[in-house]
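ok so I'm stuck.
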Amino acid sequence: MDLDAFRWLLTDAGQRLLTRAEEVGTADPLRAHTVLRKDGAEPAYVAAAMTQVELRARATAKFGELAASMYFTPDGLEQATRLPVAAHRAGRLVAFQAASVVDLGCGIGGDLIATARAGITAAGVDLDPVRVAVAQANLDALGLPGAVQVADATEVDHSPFDVAFADPARRGERGRVWDAEGWTPPWSFVLGLLARDACVKVAPGIPHEMVPDTVEAEWVSDHGDVKEAALWSGRLATVRRRATVIGDGGLATLTDEDDPGVAAVGVAPVAEYLYEPDGAVIRAGLVTAVAAGVGGGLLDERIAYVTSSQSFRTPFARGYQVLEELPYRERALKAALRERGIGRLTIKKRGVSVEPDQLRRRLSLAGPNEATIVLTRVAGEGTCLLVRPF
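replied:
not stuck anymore, here's the structure
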């Protein structure tokens, strides 16, 4: 996005054009551009306005009703933290009585917004002048205090702030950067930051061995989707591993202090109920904590399925009633499903090399009934379970 065009969009004339662009909509881009150009707007300004209308619509999934008043860049929106996740993080900062936070690489200001809304003094820096302009515009549009400036995060004096927050960029001009030292800022800077009271957002796939011994790693999911891992250091770290699940019922958290380990829960044969742990629980290595919570065991030490003779509703796992075991071999499975009149099939799988979409096509089912099957290993053997979600 062009910086001058974005700044013009914030003027009175720019706001009128943006309002008009929202009225016209983006369903027919060619018509929209033609209509707005007839109103006398410059092509660059029309493009900027239409981009914002499109991005605001996409941003609703992350920012809810706030998106209608905010500004975005395409990559900034993609990388921004979902508001419920950022609000959870800000809530933790409030609980630790943090009065001020500096965001070292603030992007379009998603975390700044959550921090400011929580009543914490927020300041942000970013290398990209466009993102800085967008972040400041978002704070202003939402009536929130905060300051943003163009600066290199690695050169900023963050010592005056109670907490330093960083979200290293893991994409470069050539795509995703797999080497952590190639992040912006690099992993060496992150490690230095984690020597103080800090929080660093990283990808949920971060290996456990990368996390320093004194740091808490928290994996967060939002309505079943694992969104991030956050590394908490200094007085902000309270455990080693944590899984936090955000859903319609609120927020729930599970830690390594709740985990008795594999030896305590053991491996168990298939019982009446099956539990599929949330992705954050799996990433945090807390599947056995779920098993302990439902009074069950693991189907296999290396597979994240829990079985129990008891029915529980838990925010940390999806529950299924096991109806029967079906044949695992494809031809026999096809016959069994057709015998039961199953035409619509949900396939869950873990620990087996099966592509659900390809298998569903090969089964070529037709019937009035709907069903869910789980393909996995039990005692090292491929197993198919017919289940009912509850």
